Amino acid sequence: MTVVLSPFQQHREKVAQISQEKAVLVDSKDSLHIVNAELERDIEYLRNFGNDMAERNEYKLNVVLPKWMPKVERYLQEGKVYPNPIFVWCIVWLFDTQQFDQGLDWAEIAIEQNQDTPKSWSMKLSGFVARAMFEWIETTAANGHSIEPYFSWVFELVKNKWRLYESDKAEWYKFAGLYLLRDENGAPKATATDNIEVLNQAKELLTQAQNIYAKVGVKTMLGNIEQRINALNK
Q: What residue numbers bound the domain in which 200 lies?
């Protein structure tokens, strides 16, 4: 007789299965090759998950990350450094699911360890993290929400630690400069402030952006800032 499980019972069985997999992955002495094969199966499953990004990210958050994060925690506790794709993929999934505190903490460690991104990727881990955070910061700012503490956290890394494409690095400086000049509607305008110190700060950031990447697109705003400063000094 076939027993039909309720959705709740199916969920409990799935959780139990994941718990068993976690125990095997964390405690067994299987070779890294075997563990990485299991990782590849999960990656392939996610690739074929479907087009619903929200459901895919929910699966990453509730199933995939709980399965693999203990393995990363064990790796970090050991204190040995070696290429660890599990570490990298957990970081990617943390950013996909907007777990930024954990993601940034681990990303800083992984970047210092020079962990490689997947072979099919065209960017290093620092580039991925910077782009992921920049997209979130732009969207969040446009919606009128706070971008801190993540903007300051990542911008400091972009300025002083991480090596990025010039165009990507310049965009951070451009955003920082324009963000100082937002009007009541969130639009960047030189006339949004009569504070000369703020105008000079924005000018410095935008000038740095232009010096890093000439095509970053700040020339007009720099001219507007100069005109605004001159008008306020009269």
A: 123-234
